[in-house]
Please model this.
Amino acid sequence: MNHRGFTLVETLACLLVLSLGFAAAIVLVAYGLQTVRLPLARSMGMATAMTVAADPTPLLPAGSSLDRAGAVTRGRINGLWVERREEPGEALAGGLRSHLVRVEVYESGDGRRICSYQERLLRRGP
Model:
């Protein structure tokens, strides 16, 4: 009586090919996630920096106020570490002052910088 079926060597070869395929798929997915992470962090960081440049209050602890002249505010927002510096303004005509605001966004408190943003704000005041 002749029995038909796969030999042990054929079965092991098939398992080897399948395991290499699964390993390659896992590596490609991990590479894709790593490739997408930095641009996503940069776009979120730039949106956060633009928001914080105009309004630093999300970085402040509850109940505190901001002295705008030469102020430095730091904090975590949107999962990113943000540092905002506002230089004392220079007087302009019509009672306006021009303040330069710089915002640096980092992955964490001591992590790498994701993006920078600066903007000049005009305010009424002495």
Notes: The CA atoms of residues 19 and 124 lie 68 Å apart. The chain has a mean pLDDT of 85. The chain is about 35% helix and 30% strand.
